[in-house]
Amino acid sequence: MESFFRFFPELVNGLGLTLSLFVLTLVCSIPLGFLCSQAGLSKNKVGRGVYLAYVTIMRGTPLILQVCFLYFGINLLLTTLGVPADVFRLDRFVGAFIAFVLNYTAYFSEIFRGGIQSINRGQYEAASVLGLSKSLTMRKIVIPQVFKIVMPSIGNEVINLVKDTALVSLIAIEDLMMLAWSATNREASVMPLIVAMVFYLAINAVVTLVLRKIEKRMSYYRI
């Protein structure tokens, strides 16, 4: 019990960092994913080509590799260019955050692209006949239906994001996973890992509940 009170405050601090990365990634990647999906639907070949290359790289390589590449790769490049370490170096958390946003933006953009393409073209034509602009059609007619369609897929990615945050321990960020593993080695006990598991399960339980509430609220938009 004494060891529990030693490592528990550490895990709570790590939980705060894990939640920060989770929330910031989610807040940035969902809107960016929707915007990027427009490039995938664009008639511009260059735009579609850039989008396809970006999505292929982000979805075709492991997230853990992207985290390492962004943090170590950018800092190594700065060193090679002769930029002094006291002038600028990419922070560990910032590097992980950028990697997570780029990765999840790619996944969300493909989800949104599929959702938009599933909308019957007749609805666009009907909106045009009624005199609605393209932006108004997208905002009032298409987007509500798209979010209803893609919510289960988005929910799966959000749950994956909670678990993927543990990858940042590889670059020595003191998140929940890293502190739990450190406490396990120090205390020679699996209890810190069990507590970390409970924390992850609790986060995902709350996320699942929120997602179900959102889906229920959006059940008005039936197609």
UniProtKB/TrEMBL annotation:
It is found in: Cell membrane. The keyword Cell membrane applies. It holds the Pfam family BPD_transp_1. Residues 11-212 form the ABC transmembrane type-1 domain. It is a multi-pass membrane protein. One of its GO terms (molecular function) is transmembrane transporter activity. The keyword Transport applies. It comes from the Bacteria. InterPro entries: AA_ABC_transptr_permease_3TM (IPR010065), ArtM/GltK/GlnP/TcyL/YhdX-like (IPR043429), MetI-like (IPR000515), MetI-like_sf (IPR035906). Its main location: membrane. GO terms for biological process: amino acid transport. SUPFAM superfamilies: MetI-like (SSF161098). GO terms for cellular component: ATP-binding cassette (ABC) transporter complex. Keywords: Amino-acid transport, Cell membrane, Membrane, Transmembrane, Transmembrane helix, Transport. The chain crosses the membrane at residues 15-37, 49-73, 93-112, 166-184, 190-211. NCBIfam families: HEQRo_perm_3TM. PANTHER family: L-CYSTINE TRANSPORT SYSTEM PERMEASE PROTEIN TCYL, MEMBRANE COMPONENT OF AMINO ACID ABC TRANSPORTER. Belongs to the binding-protein-dependent transport system permease family. This is Amino acid ABC transporter permease. It comes from Christensenella massiliensis.
